[in-house]
Amino acid sequence: MDVVSVSPTYRLMQRLSYILSGIYSSRLNPIYYLGAITVFLLIVDVLSGVYLFLFYRVDPQQAYHSVEVISSSFLGSLMRGIHRYSSDGLILFAVLHMLHMILTDRFRLFRWVAWVSGVGTLLIFIVIGISGYLLVWDERAQLTGLLMAKFFSIIPIFGHALMSAFLGTDLKNLGGLFRILLFGHIAVTILLLFTLWVHVMRISRPRLFPPKYLMVLLTIFTLAVALIFPARSDPPANLGKIPFGMSLDWFYLTGFPLFKVLPLSLNWVAFLGFFGLLTVFPWLIKGRRNPPARVIEEKCEGCKQCFEDCPYEAIYMKRVSPDEEKAFVIEDKCAGCGICVASCNYNANVIDTVPYTDILSAVSSSEPRLLVFRCPFSAEVESSEEVMVWTLPCTGAVNAVWMRELLKHAEGVLLVTCDGPDCYFREGVLWTEERFRGERRPRLLKVIDRGRVRILEKPSVDDASREVEEFLRALRSRSLPKELVILAKDKVNHLLAPVILFIPFLSFYPLTTHRIEFYPTDRSVAVLTFKYRSSPVRKAEGTYSKLKHMQAIKNIALERSPIELTFLVDGKPLLKKRYNPRGMRRDSSIYVYEEFILDPGIHSLELRLVETAHPEKVKSFRLQKELKPSDSLALSYSEERGFFALGAE
């Protein structure tokens, strides 16, 4: 029966990975630990964030100053740099991990839960990063918040209220938003624990941490970047002026340049379309899976070895009597790897793609000099008069106990596997080597001449003919070693390995300090930003409760008047619009936020507000103001002052 084969994109990824294995060794290849590196950097990010939180002031009037005070000390500056660059790193490696899963076809079928939860985790990473930037409260924070507020303004529940918080005089509203942001920054970080659990819940023994060698390098590089390129703030936020540009962090604010070229509705289409496509991606590409394994209940002795070895928790133990348990397969979770077949001493685990009886019959009748087992993802071996080749879904499906019978008819057995940790079924190579070394049940029997068995770690993009020929020569000459031979890339180039891993870290500073303008710097901007509480249209004359302590002191407004706002520049009307009070009963304040791009020069500005239910209530304002390129003017309102210009000198 045919098994799932390697795809062209997988071959491409194998070629790159195998080159790096020659530098890092297969056991330390960072491509095989992209997800674990992401988790490690997340932990570094959280720990450094906790330190910064101890000295941070949750107040928009003091936030920027507290961040600068933190940055003024050596340790504070270092921790802030670690926090920024580790957060950038976790996004980079998370995206690389996602691309690796796509290219190696590890996102569909039985892996869909890990993929969907991974998309959710990436989205949470971005939310945490954006909220963290807002808490610095510099010009980048102000413009980021303003652009995000515009993005959400298309949702009726938000409207113009959020935008008014980032430009205007409503410090109370902004302060409340800051507390929500800080709470959300922490709460969503805790939510990551749940999404990460879902991400790995169908995986046995997930790799949560990379090898110590990589963790040491990652820590050193994060410290080095934080020392060489200290994290710096943009100028402090000014609620009276709109920032024209900011230092863009391309790791977290990747989609923000779209605000320059697309309307808000299309930005929502792009956002929902991108993450929606990522979420349903596993079902858009058709694929074929190997047939599931099954357990012959009569043969099962309840040893639990297959239960322990299954990489995807597709086997569970069920009590069939007071004194006995049996193994059962969950077909929806089963990857069809056949690893459980190699876990059983009693031939109770079977799968159609690992026909041991047929293999033994063919070997006994042909008696080849060399019997080769390989998986579709390992190097190809050509059959010949001396060589018999069997392709199994995973080399980890070869039971070490079989060697007693197979070596009666073949002089040697060669197992060709994936490149160590790159096993398509995660643990096939690891379990194979441990079983044949005698470190895991079922072990290679002591009566077997171990020199007649070899394991070769070599992916499909490489040629195994040299190793096959060397083994054949050793079999012909009877010059075999006494112990099991495992051929793998196990040498580390201690000069190149750190240099290559340091390259991504060098991108962090330029990709987080690149300035981009969101408003034309040769023009000026006038902004209307204010909250207005209009007069009631209807009031509740009575009280809502007979209980004295629950009675309202004053009559309660059940509905307030809409307003009509007119804005003229140099006598030309740029705005004439009706605004309704917020709330389901239209009984709350009205928030207004409007932007106008103007040519530089002296302008005559006129603003007129009329309550439509009370035409006699009119608020008007006139101002003559010279606006220079990259200059902004914010017009706001308060009940004490009426309309006034925040940017006026």
Structure overview:
It is a single chain. The protein has 649 residues and is an alpha/beta fold. The protein has three domains: 251 residues, Cytochrome Bc1 Complex, Chain C, CATH 1.20.810.10; 194 residues, no CATH class; 127 residues, Immunoglobulin-like. It contains 18 helices and 21 strands. The strands form seven sheets. The protein has a five-stranded parallel β-sheet, sandwiched between helices. Strands 17-12-20-21 form a four-stranded mixed β-sheet. A hairpin with a 2-residue loop joins strand 3 and strand 4. The chain is elongated. The model has no long low-confidence stretch (mean pLDDT 93).
Descriptive key words:
alpha/beta; 5-stranded parallel beta sheet; Cytochrome Bc1 Complex, Chain C
Summed up, the domain count is 3
Beta percentage is 15-25%
**Overall number of strands:** 21
Please state how the strands of the largest beta sheet are arranged side by side: 7-6-8-9-10
How are the secondary structure elements laid out?
Layout: H1 8-24, H2 34-55, H3 63-72, H4 74-103, H5 112-136, H6 139-152, H7 161-165, H8 171-200, H9 212-228, E1 245-248, H10 258-261, H11 264-284, E2 294-295, H12 305-309, E3 315-321, E4 324-329, E5 349-350, H13 356-366, E6 370-374, E7 387-391, H14 403-406, E8 412-417, H15 428-436, E9 453-457, H16 465-477, E10 485-487, H17 496-506, H18 508-513, E11 514-517, E12 524-532, E13 536-540, E14 556-560, E15 563-569, E16 572-579, E17 590-598, E18 601-611, E19 614-627, E20 632-638, E21 642-645
Parallel strand pairs: 6-7, 6-8, 8-9, 9-10, 12-20
Antiparallel strand pairs: 1-11, 2-5, 3-4, 12-17, 13-14, 15-16, 15-18, 18-19, 20-21
Helix pairs in contact: 2-4, 2-9, 3-4, 4-5, 4-9, 5-6, 5-8, 5-11, 9-17
